[in-house]
Amino acid sequence: MKIFVINCGSSSLKYQLINMENEEVEAKGLVERIGIEGSVLKHQPKNGDKVVIEADMPTHKEALKNVIDALMHEKYGVIKDMKEINAVGHRVVHAGEKFACSVVITEEVINALKECIDLAPLHNPPNIIGIEACQQLMPGVPMVGVFDTAFHQTMPKEAYIYALPYELYEKYGVRRYGFHGTSHKYVSQRAAAMLGKNIEDLKIVTCHLGNGASVAAVKHGKSIDTSMGFTPLEGLAMGTRCGDLDPAIVKFVAEKEGLDLNGVDKLLNKQSGVLGVSGVSSDFRDIEEAAEKGNERAELALKIFAYRVRKYIGAYAAAMGGIDAIVFTAGLGENSDVMRASICEGLEFLGVEVDPAKNNVRGKEVDISKDGSKVRVLLIPTNEELMIARDTKELVERL
């Protein structure tokens, strides 16, 4: 079975074609600048050189058509006929409370996702456009929606209800949803496999650390809490997002700076986080380099980030009544040994001991804890596309 995995942004489209017999990626690529002058497709077949295709792609439909043409191309294609694609798995950011797991896409599902647009106005519309474009170009091919929020639907009510008038939850769905769910699910399952234990016997804290970052408490295979909330703004300090803060700051800063609601939203989402503190960049590599050269604000930004992650790990150990493993994943989590060490420093009381030699690694699946460490510290590169493909395969096989 071959699964076509699609992740549509407002002007982009990422894809992978995965052969589920061996879970190998046959081809992958990215379309950029959809609907903008200079549209380009970068296509990478498994056994070939990257191909760059420039073409006019005013909508996602044209983008998908170019991707399919590339997959079937005589020279750099990997399939001979579209019939070789058995199913399509779509990444969808927000499903609200409507879906607690991946689902086969129907008209009812699409309508439900449209009802969630208010909750994810930047992400759900392009996700829906991608689904509808695929349905037009690939009629009859089963399609599955895999949701970033679904994994966190197992949170208990005391974890996801805010202490606001309850009517706001009932009327508008104001609650904690959490994000990066597909990644947290994948790495927690891999952690159990690496430890040779049943996930239902484990208490794991998963740390998805990138420009957007979140931590999740995964108890017995289920998410019971996560740091992102109603939106991805809550939780950790991130590349440009502020994370947790006193809500009264919003009114105070708006009045002092003469900002309207859109101005405050831009400040909190685009101008804050480690960018706002460091004044250097939202890229942790740039900040680490500046800190090494003695930039005090860059050093402070890194300390703030590590402190917030460490604090959430401690909180989630308390929420789960113990902890068996900590998992680091995503761009920063997978590649920065300095940040991993900084986060774990001070967690020795929980039984966390990192081996400096083992931690000197990037992007590999490895246990970096000391021999005999009570809590295992794992580095696991995330693979959301494979998780989407697995969910798609499982559902399609039931049809």
UniProtKB/TrEMBL annotation:
Where is this gene product found? Cytoplasm
Q: How is the cofactor bound?
A: Mg(2+). Can also accept Mn(2+).
- Binding annotation for substrate: 91
Pathway info: Metabolic intermediate biosynthesis; acetyl-CoA biosynthesis; acetyl-CoA from acetate: step 1/2
Among SUPFAM superfamilies, the record links this protein to: Actin-like ATPase domain
In alphabetical order, the GO MF annotations are:
acetate kinase activity; ATP binding; magnesium ion binding
In this UniProt entry, which residues are annotated as the site Transition state stabilizer? 180, 241
Query: What is annotated as the active site?
Result: 148
Q: Name one Pfam family in it.
A: Acetate_kinase
Q: Which CDD domains match?
A: ASKHA_NBD_AcK_PK (cd24010)
GO annotation terms (biological process) = acetate metabolic process; acetyl-CoA biosynthetic process
Instruction: Give a yes or no for keyword ATP-binding in this entry.
Output: yes
Instruction: Give the first-level EC class, as a single word.
Output: transferase
Q: Which cofactor names does the annotation list?
A: Mg(2+); Mn(2+)
Q: Which GO terms describe its cellular component?
A: cytoplasm
Is Nucleotide-binding one of the keywords? Answer: yes
Q: Where does ATP bind?
A: 14, 208-212, 283-285, 331-335
PANTHER family according to UniProt: ACETATE KINASE (PTHR21060), ACETATE KINASE-RELATED (PTHR21060:SF15)
How the protein assembles, per its UniProt entry? Homodimer.
Q: Which family does it belong to?
A: Belongs to the acetokinase family.
The role this protein plays is: Catalyzes the formation of acetyl phosphate from acetate and ATP. Can also catalyze the reverse reaction.
NCBIfam families annotated for this entry?
ackA (TIGR00016)
What protein is this chain from?
Answer: Acetate kinase
Instruction: Tell me the name of the encoding gene.
Output: ackA
